[in-house]
Write a structure and sequence with these properties.
Layout (H helix, E strand, L loop, with lengths): L8 H11 L4 E2 L4 H7 L3 E2 L13 E4 L7 H13 L3 E6 L7 E4 L3 E3 L7 E3 L4 E5 L3 H8 L3 E4 L12 H4 L3
Parallel strand pairs: 1-2, 3-4
Antiparallel strand pairs: 4-8, 5-8, 5-9, 6-7
Length: 160
């Protein structure tokens, strides 16, 4: 099965709305960039994993190699090279779980219907905007860290 699955423009436009644009798609090609409209993209032969990343990122990595791409994305975001990113898959950031079937476009093949969960993850300072825009696609969740959860005072709930 091909790794070439292109995200429908509807979701890319939502990401562009949240981030204010897309500067780089590090795992792309000319055909996919027709919808993404990134200022710059890296092709498979350019190996986006070995290239510098910057600013506003759209990432839909090859499905068979998502782990490598997510690690690079996190490293670049946490060191400050990336200011915003939308991609699929991490718990430390706000996640929108699509509540419907997402149909990916594939070159030279019929569209691929994803029957399992699809999610979009946002890295950046506009979390409220991400929640506002992406909530039309499904439920948006954020991790609650144990450090931010206030302990429940069970004495208040005990019968006197």
């Amino acid at each position: 099965m091909s790794n070439e699955w292109y995200t429908p423009a509807l979701y890319i436009e939502a990401a562009r709305s949240v981030m204010g644009g897309i500067d780089l798609d590090p795992a792309s090609c000319e055909m996919a960039n027709r919808a993404v409209k990134a200022t710059r993209y890296y092709t498979q032969s350019e190996n986006g994993l070995a290239q510098p990343w910057h600013a506003l990122i759209w990432l839909n990595p090859p499905f068979s190699e998502q782990g490598k791409w997510c690690k690079k994305l996190l490293r670049e975001y946490e060191r400050g090279a990336i200011s915003h990113a939308v991609f699929q898959g991490l718990w430390r950031y706000p996640i929108c779980f699509a509540d419907h079937q997402v149909i990916f476009n594939r070159p030279g093949a019929s569209p691929y219907h994803i029957y399992h969960g699809v999610c979009f993850v946002y890295l950046g300072p506009n979390e409220a905007r991400f929640i506002e825009v992406f909530s039309k696609f499904g439920t948006v969740v954020q991790r609650v860290s144990p450090a931010t959860v206030q302990p429940c005072n069970l004495e208040l709930w005990s019968a006197s």
